From TrEMBL:
Superkingdom of the source species: Bacteria
Keyword Transmembrane helix assigned: yes
Keywords tagged on the record: Cell membrane, Membrane, Transmembrane, Transmembrane helix
Bilayer topology: Multi-pass membrane protein
Cellular localisation: Cell inner membrane
Any GO molecular function: branched-chain amino acid transmembrane transporter activity
Main subcellular localisation: membrane
Protein name: Inner-membrane translocator
Gene Ontology cellular component list: plasma membrane
Residue intervals passing through the bilayer: 25-46, 53-73, 79-97, 109-127, 154-175, 243-267, 279-301
CDD domains linked: TM_PBP1_LivM_like
PANTHER family found in the cross-reference section: BRANCHED AMINO ACID TRANSPORT SYSTEM PERMEASE, HIGH-AFFINITY BRANCHED-CHAIN AMINO ACID TRANSPORT SYSTEM PERMEASE
Length: 317
């Protein structure tokens, strides 16, 4: 079923440009939704499967973006090397942070990750010689993949969606592996997992680092796609929105987290026409989904579709 779902998702992504040729708005929204989905899939590994909440995930998103921006604009570094450097920096910092911070649980862990995100955001604002301060950095060159410059909307859509499919595939494989089973055990009961011989500290550290790498990867792509970065793109609001995407789509569901990110991105774009009532409608819709689909949008719609199918078969019989 997962292979069928992956193939269906890939076909849908591939057909979208054919259905809306030369449509800048559709491609732009698709790129934004794809980046958010990569972030949500990575965060879902930490929250959904390991049961560890993070309110500072935008910090790793910003690390990847600023590393690529600084290396390419100030040191003329090739974009692929800058992207790799962003992954290394985010991975090392996540590994150093994971051991002490993941000893905390519940709201203590949430507050610790929140503090980390605030510290990184302040550094982005105050380290003006490196980051450009509140004004950010502009003039970031396009992503260059072995001589192929990603400099058009269609090319960016293709790259982002390929990256999203890669992220989903890696996530599904990780969940089905021994590490994934250990993470589900930790989420169920960390004490029981320890009694079974699982090194819970190591498992949580590994998933924290992997989740940070997903975010840094998306950040590097974001910097080259926007050709501009500023601290406002990586503040607390972004971290909260990422948590909302994961919960909205459905915890412990890779496709659910991706669908939650896409749905929330489309919701933001669709509610722009309502201007002053945008946040009110946005909040009401989120409340309705959580009340009537507590397991998440993806699982709720799947269950609804199955019920309709059964009713149709009973009626035809």
């Amino acid at each position: 079923m997962r292979r069928i779902g992956f193939f269906t998702f890939a076909v849908g992504v591939a057909l979208l440009p054919a259905l809306f040729p030369d449509n800048y708005f559709v491609m732009a929204v698709g790129v934004s939704a794809g980046l958010n989905a990569i972030l949500a899939v990575g965060l879902n590994l930490l929250m959904g499967y390991a049961g560890q909440i993070s309110l500072g995930h935008a910090a790793f998103f910003g690390m990847g973006a600023y590393t690529s921006a600084i290396l390419t604009t100030r040191y003329a570094c090739p974009s692929l090397i800058a992207l790799t450097a962003g992954l290394i920096i985010a991975g090392v910092i996540a590994w150093l942070l994971a051991r002490p911070i993941l000893r905390l649980r519940g709201h203590y862990l949430a507050m610790a990750t929140l503090g980390f995100g605030v510290i990184v955001h302040v550094l982005m604002v105050q380290a003006t010689p490196w980051t450009g301060g509140p004004d950010g950095l502009n003039g970031i060159p396009p992503l260059n993949l072995l001589g192929w410059s990603v400099d058009s909307d269609l090319r960016w859509y293709a790259v982002i969606m390929a990256a999203l499919l890669l992220a989903i595939g890696l996530s599904l494989n990780l969940v089905d592996s021994r590490i994934g089973r250990a993470l589900r055990a930790v989420r169920g009961s960390e004490f029981a997992a320890q009694m079974l011989g699982i090194d819970t500290g190591r498992a949580k550290t590994q998933v924290f680092v992997v989740s940070a790498l997903f975010a840094a990867f998306a950040g590097s792509l974001f910097a080259h796609q926007q050709s501009f970065v500023s601290p406002d793109s990586f503040n607390l609001t972004v971290s909260v929105e990422l948590v909302t995407m994961v919960v909205l789509g459905g915890l412990a569901s890779t496709y659910g987290s991706a669908c939650g990110a896409i749905a929330l991105t489309l919701l933001h774009e669709g509610l722009v026409v309502f201007e002053d009532y945008e946040m009110m409608i946005h909040g009401a819709l989120l409340m309705a989904v959580m009340i009537f689909m507590p397991q998440g949008l993806f699982i709720g719609l799947s269950q609804g579709a199955r019920r309709l199918w059964r009713l149709k078969n009973k009626a035809s019989a």
